[in-house]
Design a protein that fits this description.
The protein has 226 residues and is α/β, with parallel strands linked by helices. It folds into 2 domains: 73 residues, no CATH class; 111 residues, Nucleotidyltransferase, domain 5, CATH 3.30.420. The chain contains 8 helices and 5 strands.
């Protein structure tokens, strides 16, 4: 259970504010205005602190809980995220049904970063049978190194057009990020992207609810704090 003690505002208001920010293309000032219209005076900096504090805990609860199994045929790609005026790299992968495998924000786009991403994804989901990547040399070398380390016969496919599925999936994340006008620190970017990806996975139906009940995406998100 996530501990909300010591906060001036109630648990439900905090969770609602965090979910709105992670689920919709809003800025912190947008949320401040929306809450004010509902008679709640909350400074946008408070919402920022809530997002930074509670998002990692909510995402950790999601990872530990029951989820729909992902496939063994992965589509992996990276997209750009601006942090303090500089481009950083968000590595992402989905299976052939569009379910999110994993994600990782890195400072560099190289073999080391790609290898870290693959290792993170494998810890959560096990080894894939097939990985489709673009023509990136770094991704190729990282995947070859992974095959050698594990001894697993991973089929590597390099075809830009086969990766349309993951490239289209990037758009759902970028749509939420765009109104944020860039991040001011790598840590805040990493935490916020955790939450955006969390909401994206919930909306795609990757979370299994208690007793199989048909919860809305919002209800599923709030249940992670229970």
């Amino acid at each position: 259970m996530i501990d909300f003690r010591g906060h001036r505002f109630e648990r439900d208001l905090i969770l609602t504010s965090v979910r709105w920010y992670l689920a919709y293309p809003l800025s912190y000032r947008n949320l401040e205005e929306m809450l004010a219209e509902r008679g709640v005076e909350v400074d946008h900096s408070s919402v920022y602190r809530w997002v930074q504090k509670f998002t990692p805990q909510l995402e950790a609860a999601f990872r530990k809980g029951p989820k729909r199994p992902v496939g063994t045929r992965w589509r992996m790609d990276e997209t750009y995220i601006k942090v303090k005026g500089q481009w950083k790299y968000l590595y992402r992968a989905v299976d052939r049904d569009g379910q999110t495998i994993d994600f990782l924000l890195t400072a560099h786009r190289d073999k080391k970063a790609a290898h870290r991403f693959f290792k993170k994804a494998i810890r959560q989901h096990g080894l894939p049978d097939t990985v489709t990547i673009d023509k990136s040399g770094a991704n190729t070398v990282a995947l070859e190194a992974l095959k050698e380390e594990t001894g697993h016969a991973i089929e590597m496919r390099q075809n830009k057009y086969l990766n349309n599925l993951v490239e289209q999936d990037h758009r759902a994340v970028k749509r939420i990020v765009r109104p944020m006008l860039g991040f001011q620190s790598f840590r805040s970017a990493r935490v916020t992207l955790q939450g955006i990806e969390l909401m994206h996975m919930i909306k795609k139906g990757q979370m299994i609810t208690v007793d199989g009940r048909d919860f809305s995406a919002a209800e599923q998100f709030y249940s992670l704090a229970a």
